[in-house]
Amino acid sequence: GQNIDQPTEMTATEGAIVQINCTYQTSGFNGLFWYQQHAGEAPTFLSYNVLDGLEEKGRFSSFLSRSKGYSYLLLKELQMKDSASYLCAVRDSNYQLIWGAGTKLIIKP
Amino acid sequence: IAGITQAPTSQILAAGRRMTLRCTQDMRHNAMYWYRQDLGLGLRLIHYSNTAGTTGKGEVPDGYSVSRANTDDFPLTLASAVPSQTSVYFCASSEGGEGSTEAFFGQGTRLTVV
Question: Hey, is the C-beta of B61 within 8 angstroms of any chain A C-beta?
Answer without folding.
Answer: no
